[in-house]
Amino acid sequence: MSIFSRSGSRRRSPSFKKPTDDPLWLKLLLSILAIGFITVLLLLPLALVFQEAFARGISAFWAAIVEPDSLAAVRLSLTAAAIAVPLNTVFGIAAAWSIAKFDFPGKTFLVTLIDLPFSVSPVVSGLIYVLVFGMQGWLGPSLADHNIHILFALPGIVLATIFVTFPFVARELIPLMVDQGRDEEEAAATLGASGLDTFLRVTLPNIKWGLLYAVLLCNARALGEFGAVSVVSGHIRGVTNTMPLHVELLYNNYDYVGAFAVAALLAMLALVTLALKTLLEWRYADELAAAHRH
Amino acid sequence: MSAIGLKLTPFRTRHVLPGFSLSLGFTLFYLTGLVLIPLLALVLRPAGLGLDGFWSAIATPRVLASLRLSFGMALAAAAIDSAFGFIIAWVLVRYRFTGKALLNAVIDLPFALPTAVAGIALSTLYAPNGWIGSLLIAHGIKIAYTPWGVLVAMTFIGLPFTVRTLQPVLSELGLEIEEAAATLGATRLQTIARVVLPMLLPAILTGGAMAFARGAGEYGSIIFIAGNIPAVSEIAPLLIVTKLEQYDYAGASAIGVVMLAASFVMLLALNGLQSWAAKRR
Hints:
heterodimer; A: mainly alpha; 72% helix; globular; B: 14 helices
């Protein structure tokens, strides 16, 4: 198999075989298993989304996208992400600044708490807001008295989106800023720079690619979140259905072309996200948190 | 805020850098308001039921079956993901072939693809008339609308965790120990099984635990393919949603608390695994 060459070997003498090279049969076996598994488990579903979306031609795909309820879903998803992502970005920067640049007791515990939303089931993430803002919840009755709608409306969707994307920016920036230390900022401060100047001119240039990386992933999750948003949205077609919820609604109504058309839109977004993420990992590997350097 | 500011004054005076009270204050405020208080609302809700009420909400055959399905299948999916995660990470780190970069990028697809999209795609793929389902049904195997559908969806969702946890550890692993094993007469397979695998054990367990935690809580990609037959292919998160739709807040919260407790245990286990891994390096 000529597509294989020895990993890490610069001398290419055909007779020399390093003791740490796998035998050819093992290379073939493991490669076939790896590629086969990825193809069946990951690539086939992706291919199927596009195949189904364009099964009736591009015009049917386009008609399903520009249908008013689909457009409303796109608008709602973009609105929710446009509120949730900047808020979590500000939070992530604040959390990383306090954790990476200062010492205080309970730091490790704080980092664990910030990570917590990632290990909570999406459905539980939605449920907790129902228990706070629902009619049987803590604030539900008094909110209803003042005619304020949190659940089954945009605020609830935004809250659920914030919860599930909560750790993205913080957990990328914390290790990155801990690695970079505080010498540069301290030098700037000693030389008389204001706090804002120090952040904008010293810290931000150092973390900008990591920040972009995190915002990219945060945004993808915000637009694609299903479980948490599903619990708080109320599923009102054209009003509180985000794109993933609209996919569910169309699919359950046997409108497969419509469901897969909106799904293809989300899949394209996922592919763009993956492409940009890979580009950042290649181009700016040294400026991302160590976990993403390949 | 002022209470926090006062308490932290002794620390602040030691710092050259500004913004400590502001950044930490905002962090704690945001974390408490959006995450901790809502989570407290969940933890406190079943307290109104009492221990007996809580137990009778959980100990119904339907709830127990859903918990068994969610956690049991998540364990099976984590095992499959750990095995293939090791193979994939090995191939991606140790071998060179054309298209490797693309294969590497594709691994993160389950992170990036919205779960509902994955759900309808897997469901269509494994349905009796789907691309894979039609091949399997010829051999009498049904995946979609059975508990096996749950397994397929959880395996899909969990794969990136195992691969991405193993990759950096594997590429940092020096070749010296493997060379020593080879010099001492070990065959290549013996070296991999008895030298490399034990060194990777913490990373394999960490990745597996992450895949397990994600799979047990997963909702979107599963509900389309599972068929959702009560006590057969109905996962615990779906039962929470069903109970909420029937305004059974207490029942939904009881399952929610069990799921949350499991998340806490997994988080603690992961922290323990990571400090173990750090010590072994």
